[in-house]
Amino acid sequence: MARQSPQRPDSDEPEVDDSAASGTAAESDEVDRALWAELRIDPVEIALPAGTGYTLRAYRPARELTPTDVEERDQDDPFLARRQVVAEEDDDEVVILDEEVAQEFAESDREERNAREDSGDDAEASSTESTDDAGDEEVPVFLSHKGRLLLFKTTESLVSFVRSGAPNDLSQLDSWGELSERVEPSDVTPLDEDTYELDLVVENLRGGHDAWDSALLIEAGEVARDLSYALRVPAVLDMLSAGSSLDDLDEALRAAASGGIGGFRGRRRLKKIGAQTASLGWRTIVGKISAVVDWRD
User: Fold this and answer.
1) Please, are residues 150 and 294 in contact by the beta-carbon 8 Å criterion?
2) How many angstroms separate the CA atoms of 264 and 248, rounded?
3) What pLDDT, in 10s, does the model give residues 72-83?
4) What is d(CA 208, CA 276) in angstroms, rounded to the nearest whole number?
5) Is residue 12 one of the residues assigned to a domain?
6) DSSP single-letter state for residue 40
7) Potential cystine with 252: which of 78, 232, 269, 274 (Cβ 3.0-4.6 Å)?
8) Domain limits at 238?
């Protein structure tokens, strides 16, 4: 129950209408969210092992976007795909080359797909013929530049960059100019569904099947796919592609979370997925994404 203020019969001050005040606050929140809805750009928060940062993401038809240029990124770091990832399993230190893990996943998945798909080549040819449909498909684009994701540690630094006119991949959007004029630090409040904790994924997977957090892992898969597509990281795209081992994990998690008979079958499928294999695969993914982040204060 709200505490009532003592009555002051002789006071000339007008009474404050609490309901009106709360209505104003709600209206303000609605206006702030309306900015993003109107411009079709959303603030995103991503947590990685190196820290947590803010960025922006939009979805547009593929034909309307120019992909980010990764040539300079790859020239700056020709050994990007060979960076080492160190994992500790059963108290023994195991050094894994992330490129080797990615290759292992890719080869295994290709063998499985070839074994169960008799018409794989025909499907690929059909997909190539459907260029018009692919051009209409909405794909992700992030606040990035030359193949690197721009992550800002504060909302103020993100807004300062947006207003600066500095080159980035979102500036090709027709709504970018208006965003740079209107956005304020207080507007950069990502929704829960646009907040991703990639820093927790590997540890969660290593905890075993009973500890797996479906929401955490499913959301991580969604943003990893978006990032690998937008930033052109083919190794990650391949590891998460349809029919891959980690895609099977994603599907099983979604089925388990759905409940009913499908949920029961999903849980049975999860029991067959190795926790160590899944955690090593995701460690590689997080490492590759982290390698293409440009942190901004």
Assistant:
1) yes
2) 15
3) 998 876 554 444
4) 9
5) no
6) T
7) 269
8) 31-296
